[in-house]
Fold:
Amino acid sequence: CLARDDILKAREVIANSDFLLLQNELPIETLFTAVELATEVNTRVLLNPAPAGNFEPSLLEQVYVLTPNEGEAAVIAGLVNASPQELAQKIHKQGVKRVIITLGERGVLVSEEGNGVQLEAMRVRAVDSTGAGDTFSAALAVSLAQGLELINAAQYAVVASGLTVMNRGVMASMPTKEAVACYQTLDKEKKGGRILMVNREYM
Structure:
């Protein structure tokens, strides 16, 4: 299991990175150490709070983007039967400036300092959703590191995760950046609205 000392040994790597992508599967001491070290060296933190849990405000305030699903957002916000917009507003009050709540087939809510926009999900024939969340987080981090605005980075991540669910497996189903770009530029009526993957290439 990744420990606090492992994080400290990776100081130089973290310092030379644009983003540190974290999940809540780490021991809490390790997670706190990673977030605090990233803040110290001016590396932005993207936190996927899965599995759901309660977080100290001192940790949340250091997160650049928080990406919970709707259930995780409800736990963090401490609200029941709330809309995604209400959840985002409550999380903002805990010190998080940027929240992206993933909503499955309903898309994602992107909220930055209280201004929210809901993006539609891709309309695809889902085969295997395993790895869709990991793909979303990775694509979001990469596109933000490349300078995209939050809303555009989220749209890129939506496409990447949408392509992932069309194929089986985790690593094997993750699309290349060329595949995502191809989808974004193709006409919406292309080949019945689907892109088929053959040997990690989209036709």
About this structure: The first helix runs from residue 4 to 9. The CA atoms of residues 22 and 47 lie 5 Å apart. The two ends are 40 Å apart (CA to CA).
